[in-house]
Amino acid sequence: MTDTTVWPHHELGKELSNWGRWGADDQIGTLNFITPQKLVASATMVRTGKTIDCGIPFDKDGPFPPGGWRRNPQHLFTLLPSDSFYAKDGQIAADDIIIMGLQASTQWDGLAHVGYDGFFYNGVPASAVNNFQGASKNDIAKVATKLVSRGVLLDIAGLKGVDVLPDSYEITTADVVAAQERQGVRVEPGDIACIRTGWTKYFREGDRQKYVGPTPGPGLDLCRWIHGSEIAALALDQSNGEVWPTPVPGATIPVHQVMIRDIGLTLGEMFDFEALKADCEADGVWEFLFVAPRPAGHRRGWHAAQSDRDQVAAPVTSFAEVFAAVYTAVAAHAQHQDAGDTDGIMALYTPDAVLEVPGMGVYQGAAAIRAAWDDWKPKSLQRHMPVNVVITAWDDAEARATTDVVFLAQGDKGWSVQIVARYHDVLRQVGGTWLFSRRADEYIGWAPPG
């Protein structure tokens, strides 16, 4: 049965759509408003040489409470000075890694983050965001050099005479117009608008549940102002990017859908505007040069690939095809592991395969490997997250690869990292399908239990 619901935010999105405004191939949306002329003019905002950091700390004490599906950065050492015993000249060294989600601190929502009806901004299909290429269109990296412009801070909490706006307060067009009048500043095309709710207070107090809970923020009414004012980007000092919970019955982040998918707006979340607000208030100047750090390439999540072996079918002739086939096999293996699906795992091995696991043993042949995976079926929720697949050698018959993997387990306090490992895989092409002929695990974080 076809869903015939008429969603108010989808109707609004049609009205405010910027699809095609800058051409069919545009991937930066409203950042097009930052023209060379705008950038030159914005440079004149530098008057005192003062810099103010508007980001929240990037560490394990980040914004997310335990037990959720987003996690704060986790910092692990992979090399300690005590590991340098081999150095004859006394050299010592340390090395480390950070495991994190892409929304673990102050961040930007790119144009491949939220869409609806199977499309992202400017008609980019959902299939353009996948495990093989990340976001092949609307990649956040497209905005790497664009987020520099005149910034304007609109203090909505100050407008209302409070330190922090109430839970689920909906910021409207009337609010931002009144804030400009109160502060004696005017938002212009190409500006980066910064809206202060005061919500950072809860992050600073360590109340993460409150910080990610019912937040004040923009509602659908503000989308009209965003479109009409021609701002280049919007930055907020709260975690949800809009008023939450949404007042639109049955909808899921409707403001995101309109701002990102239809208007093409780059949306910033979890900024800290308290020091900026104090400085602006002190001298009565609410405009400044806004400079954002360069973002990393857009890789929204590490979801396991399809488990069907047809997904790793070949023949292949190019590196890109080999990489896609290997990555899909690795991701499918992780998916079957987490599900305790021994049949699914074994469908990915050759009959004469070898599996080597430190501290467990070496398993030769399908029967031995099957028995091992039967013994290792998970007794609680777990998740293997493969990252950094590197093809070290390949031809049309065989490929060798290394993959870093993060093993997460769910306990009483939520998900936690248990092991960081590296797979050393050899895959063979058999009848047009890439199968594991050898896998050797290497623990690079800390030793496995037992």
Could you say what the CATH architecture of the largest domain is? 3-Layer(bba) Sandwich
Strand order of the largest sheet: 3-11-10-8-6-12
For the largest beta-sheet, the strand count, sense and barrel status come to: 6 strands, mixed
Order of secondary-structure elements: HHEEEEEEHEHEHHEHEHEHEHHEEHEEEE
* Number of helical stretches of at least 4 residues: 12
Domain tally: 3
What's the CATH topology label of the largest domain?
Answer: Glucose Oxidase, domain 1
Give the C-level CATH assignment of the largest domain: Alpha Beta
User: Which class do the helix and strand fractions yield?
Assistant: alpha/beta
Unreliable runs: 296-317
Proportion of beta-strand residues = 25-35%
Structure explained in plain terms:
By secondary structure, the chain is of the alpha/beta class. The protein folds into 3 domains: 8-50 and 106-291, Glucose Oxidase, domain 1 (3-Layer(bba) Sandwich); 57-102, no CATH class; 309-443, Nuclear Transport Factor 2, Chain: A. 24% of the residues lie in helices and 26% in strands. It contains 12 helices and 18 strands. It has helices at residues 8-16, 36-43, 156-159, 173-183, 200-204, 208-211, 220-229, 254-263, 274-283, 319-339, 342-346, 366-375, and strands at 74-79, 95-99, 107-109, 129-130, 134-135, 148-155, 170-171, 192-196, 217-218, 233-236, 266-269, 287-291, 349-357, 361-364, 382-394, 398-411, 414-430, 433-443. Strands 3-11-10-8-6-12 form a 6-stranded mixed sheet, sandwiched between helices. Strands 14-13-18-17-16-15 form a 6-stranded mixed sheet, with helices on one face. The chain has a two-stranded antiparallel sheet with strand order 1-2. The longest helix is centred in the last third of the chain and has 21 residues, at 319-339. The N and C termini lie far apart (53 Å).
